[in-house]
Amino acid sequence: MAESGTGQPMVRALLRGLDVLRHLNDEAGLSAAELAGRCDLARITVYRLLRTLEKEGYVRQGARSRYFLGPKVLSLNSAYPRHNWLSAIAVPAMQSTSRELGWPLAFSTNNGPHMSVQHTTMDETGFWLKLKGPGSQLPLLRTAMGLAYVAHTPKRIAGPLIRAALALDAASSAEHARHPARIDQSLASTRAAGIASVRNAGESEHVSLSAIGVPVGRGTTPIAAIALVYYSASMSGTDATRRFGPELQRLARRISDQI
Question: HSE on the CB side for 247, CA within 13 Å?
Fold first, then answer.
């Protein structure tokens, strides 16, 4: 038995089993030896955990003794929508970071050709910026969160998302017709920097707003994005990226590490 921070006993074997599942969620097809190294456990311990998880349907063994998540893991979140548990993890970290940086943050998940706002911290800072609240749908290709998300999404997924966004968003479609290479250029620069920057993305009480955004997620596919929103007149996009980009990336990693 291990002891939690509250002094209550914890079941060490359960923690080890969950660690195995987390690593298989990050990278499918690991061997028992690879899992033993990543979990810092003896190989025989990992074999026992894998046999138990496999018997219960949470893990399956593939070719060459490689292990994958089993179908039963889907039942673990069937009663808890993804955006609920993501927000539960993200909100506390967003609130403290927003107070430190002084500007509001927004958190969104993907909804096909849109980004769906889950939470904002517009009440946590000295700047009260009127932002679109939870449930609002933002254009994928005209927001920092959308660009950060799609730029870091594998091409096989990003391509259909972009085509759907162009089909449904007249402004993005018109811009693409005028400058066909601009989307690819914007996504390439976002990938290179790790941060998306969009000028004059919206307004608050007739004052123009800009934003920088970063993806959230572990593994190769993001599952959400976070943006810092600021008055366009207060700084350039380059200044915003330089001043706040590293802290925004640290926040994204803090959230990702808990997923």
Answer: 16
